[in-house]
Amino acid sequence: MMRTLLLFLLVSVPSIAMTADRPNILYIMSDDHAAPAISAYGSRLANVAPTPHIDRLAKEGALFTNAFCTNSICSPSRACVMTGQYNHTNGAFDLSGRVAPGEQMLAIQMGKAGYQTAMIGKWHLHHEPADFDYYCVLPGQGKYHDPEFLVRGDKPWGKNKLQFPGKHSSDAITDLTLDWLKDGWDQEQPFFLMHHYKAPHDYFENAERYESYLADVQIPEPDTLWHRDPKFGSLATRGANDELLPHIGTSIGGRNLRRSYLGDLPSLYPNEFPKDFDPAKYSDEENTRFAYQAYLKKYLRCVKGIDDNLGRLFQHLEQTGQIDNTIIIYTGDQGFMLGEHDYQDKRWMFEESQRMPFLVRYPKSIPAGKRYDTIIENVDYAPTMLALAGAEIPGSVQGRSFKSLLETGDEPADWKQAAYYRYWMHMAHHDNPGHLGIRTKTHKLIYFYGCNYDGGYQTPAGWELYDLVNDPQETRNLYDDPDQAERVAELKAQLARLRQSVGDDGSHHPKCEAIVQEFWDYDEADRAKARKISHQYLQRRLAELKAGKLNTRTWQGE
């Protein structure tokens, strides 16, 4: 009997000790939260709209300046985080992308490692998040006010609902997480909790208590809202002789004839505009300024709601003695254009859209105040969290853990020196052409191939090269600069190799890949054809506008 008891203790004690030593993991992700809207990143917005609770993670942990999404759009980015795979591998190419039960790798592996798993807030991957022990998620995009949630329960997926009348979604999501930490978490296990806000996704509906926040403040404007160098962009984004400027990329002011914030926001937020606002009474510059100020104030009020709610969440972790035993990560599902180049939304490979905020705090092993320029991608988040949890990283994962970097401060000698990007949903919703590219620490090469999955709905192809050291705002396309010819050739070859290494070999959509290959060299014949396509597309778009077709399905078909 005694021998049996001793054997039991010898086997059990290390397991108990290991469980006690393992950290909780709190992964916080907001929707469309651009790094410049976090004051720790030191942008033009830092002084007017500080984010002290998010900044705390940078002060007491690490901040990454080169964290990138591989596809700047909601569902695909979330699929990358959940699977550790690029979208051509996990199949979530666009907003219809989904990750089915049994494939929600991150939740599965955390569960196998002894973690209690929970998913609370915005999910947006369509299938039931059934591989989590607990979930309470917004249906689809969800609502800002009076939100409804789908919760695990006795009924089938989608039938068990919770409603929060009178509440803002950021408050309700925080309440749900606090309730789970208090009453749902089995403290015999460490927790892995994904806490996802809907905010600050457009259209931006802040809680009523923030209506006066920033009301009398003039929000600083990006230089590129007004001043766009003649060398910015390409035939792909400007059209032949700039004929597509009113049709590529939705705008802040009235530039885009189909969709602009000047067209959308006055009716949504009349209090942000002059009384009885009529844009015909103002200049283009005044109208753009009105729309920009309304846009940024509503956006930043949503960010303020997130930051204040994180204060509540962090306070609870402190009061329960868990804050220093919890790895806290803050990020967004991608970046967001905050008026730069007169663009709205995300999807672009431009910096404000491609870059994600990434901050992490864990004082037991991550030194405070670290700032890294190491290139990381959202496919690296899952393996890093699994490594920090001591969990197994399956062979299906394409990303790589940067745990050693967090703990030692040293970038591994064989770490990636470039990020891969691919936006597939050609001209959908915000008039962004299909494109792919490579981003190093010093340069960015973007290839706008300009077609949908079926090789159809073509816009002109074009290439853009930006020197991020000397031109961090990406104002001058150097692709045709003779002094950059060697760099262009090197980056094109590196991009081709990177495509192969990540598995984007074109087999997923062969008709699209045929267009990618057709304009790859971009010789004079290619450019001539691109100019012809520009003229043809202009006529097509003008005909759509004349017919009132404002929401054409562009990403499939001819």
TrEMBL record:
The question of whether Hydrolase is a record keyword is answered with yes
- A Pfam family the protein falls into: Sulfatase
Q: List each copy of the Sulfatase N-terminal domain by range.
A: 23-391
Q: Which Gene3D superfamilies does the entry mention?
A: Alkaline Phosphatase, subunit A
Keyword flag Signal: yes
Q: Can you tell me which residues the record assigns to a coiled coil?
A: none
Enzyme Commission no = 3.1.6.1
Keywords attached to this Swiss-Prot or TrEMBL record, sorted alphabetically, are:
Glycoprotein, Hydrolase, Signal
Annotated signal sequence range = 1-19
Q: Which GO terms describe its molecular function?
A: arylsulfatase activity
Which family does this protein fall into? Belongs to the sulfatase family.
- Name it: Arylsulfatase
